[in-house]
Amino acid sequence: MVAAIKEETFPEIEAHGAAAVHWFSLGELSKLIEMFQREGVRRAIMAGQVRHKQIFSSIRPDWRLAKLLLSLTTRNTDSLLGAVAKVLGDEGIVLEKSTWLLEPLLVKVGVLTVRSPSEQELKNIAYGRSVALQLAQHDIGQTVVIAESACVAVEAMEGTDATILRAGEIMRSLSFDGGGDAPTLSRALTVVKSAKPNQDMRFDVPVVGVKTIEVMAAAGATCLALDAGKCLLLDGEKVIEAANGAGIAVVAEGKI
Predict the structure, then answer these.
(1) Dihedral of CA 136/142/147/152: which sign?
(2) Which residues does residue 45 pair with via DSSP β-bridges, in sequence order?
(3) Fold adopted by 103-253
(4) Could you tell me the pTM of the whole model?
C-alpha cells in the first residue's frame, strides 16, 4: 500500500502495481495516521523526497501537524521528520530505515568511473568534506560545491540540483578583467554530497541519480564525491555511464 503526497508524488505511481494508493496533502498528518490505523498498518517506509521548502509553502497544516510545527525549536530536516516519526511511533506505527529494501543501491567505496579525480579535485574533495561536516552538524544541507579549494555554494532549502546550478552561474559570472587576464579561480567545480555524522537512515538519506550528473555537466562540474554506505545511487549503471560520457569523476569514500 502506498500513501502518496499530492504535492510531490508523480500520478504514474498508480500504474506500478501497488495494492492501493491513498492520496494526501502534505499538511494532512491526521488523515494519514487515521488511514494507517484503519488499514492495520504497523510499519512504514519513507520513499522519495519531500522538499524542505514545501513545508513552508502554501500548504494548510491540520491541527496535528500545526501542533507539531509549533513545538519545534528548530525546523531543519531532522527536527521535522524526526518529530513526524515520533508521532507515528506514538500511534503504533514504526518507521523503518528508508534503505531497508535498497541496500544494493548504497554506494560502495572506490572510484566508480573510468576517470579518477585529479590532484586538484582530490584537494577540493578534502576541503569540501570539512565544510560539509560543519553544515551536516547543523542539518543545513548535504551538498557543497568547491573550486580550487574555495567554497562556491552550499545547499540550504533549495536542494542539491539548484545548489549545483547556482554554483555554475557564479562561476560563469566571473568575468575577465580589462587587461584580458583570466579569473584566478578555475571554473571546474567539484561537488561533495555528504550524509550527516549520525545519519538517521529512516529519512533524508542522500540520493544521486542521472539528473544529478546532467545538472553537474550543465554547471561545469567535473567531479562528484559521495559517502560510501550512506548514499543511494539510483539507476547506478546509467549514472556511471552518464558520468563517463560527461568526463565526470565519481568517487565514494568512507563516512566523514
Answers:
(1) negative
(2) none
(3) Cytidine Deaminase; domain 2 (3.40.140)
(4) 0.84
User: What is the number of helices (H) and of strands (E) in the chain?
Assistant: 7, 12
4: three-class secondary structure by DSSP? strand
Higher-pLDDT residue of 173, 30: 30
The single-letter DSSP state of residue 91 is: T
The architecture (CATH level 2) of 2-95 comes to 3-Layer(aba) Sandwich (3.40)
Q: Domain coordinates of the chain in residue numbers? A: 2-95, 103-253
Beta bridge partners of 224: 191, 250
- The amino acid at residue 199 is Q
Q: Let me know: does 247 contact 121? Beta carbons within 8 Å.
A: no
Compute how many other C-beta atoms are within 10 angstroms of the C-beta atom of residue 175.
8
Interval 170-204: pLDDT, tens: 998 875 555 555 566 677 899 999 988 888 888 88
Sequence-ordered list of residues with C-beta below 8 angstroms from that of 93, at least 6 positions apart, any chain: 33, 36, 37, 41, 42, 43, 44
The strand ranges marked E within 76-175 are 94-95, 110-111, 143-147, 150-154
Q: Would you mind telling me the total number of residues written for the chain in this entry?
A: 256
Q: Comparing 146 with 13, which gets the higher pLDDT?
A: 146
The yes-or-no answer to whether 2-95 and 103-253 have a common fold is no
Nine cell digits for residue 239? 549514472
